[in-house]
Amino acid sequence: MSQEFILETRDLTREFKGFIAVDRVNLQVRRGSIHALIGPNGAGKTTMFNLLTKFLPVTSGQILYRGQDITALPAAKVARMGMVRSFQISAVFPHLTVLENVRIGLQRKLGTSFHFWKPESSLYSLNNEAMALLEQVDLADFAQTQTVELPYGRKRALEIATTLALDPELMLLDEPTQGMGHEDVGRVVELIGRVAAKRTVLMVEHNMNVVSDLSDTITVLARGSVLAEGPYKTVSKDPRVLEAYVGTVEEAAP
Question: Which of 74, 172, 173, 194 is 20 to 30 Å from the Cα of 215, by its Cα?
């Protein structure tokens, strides 16, 4: 595996009782890039993410991260290696403050992740670092806000902050703009562009405007297989992609 690529799959396959959800997918994610995984509903995008982050076992094939075969490794070990994922649904603690949520992500650095009997004051040393992360995602003014009170778009930004707290080398973002209004989408797109400056991002995204604005490379899945790959201008004009989307990509293309 070339050092050019941080993540690679080789003939990655996942079968569910005779149904092949991911079919011999070969994926290469270049270091320092933003790589989008797109496709119509049922294309296998979320299954791919679940395989990459070890929430599902692989039926056959290989996953390599930084040149190491991680196919059989558990999810927690893969995360500790620097490949961290966000989810489609909210994955923050609603009744903690914004600052407390980020602090939990940082807690691993203290080696006290499971020491729940320790007083909260033992985490105060993380406050400055947590605030710095909140500054990165424009949430510093919300630090003492209970998370349940955050607008939806801000909540998604907090999820990115908690992901950043784990200091990932590769971030996997699952539908980061799903359910957002135009203003929130613009804010999150700008945020992803900023945080990607020092790391690699692989994202599943349905919004073609977001994909065209952010992505260096796009892989299109259809029925579990790679249909097309390349920059947006090339992929968006591919007849096979237009057919798979039944006009969705055509309408979004410039």
Answer: 74
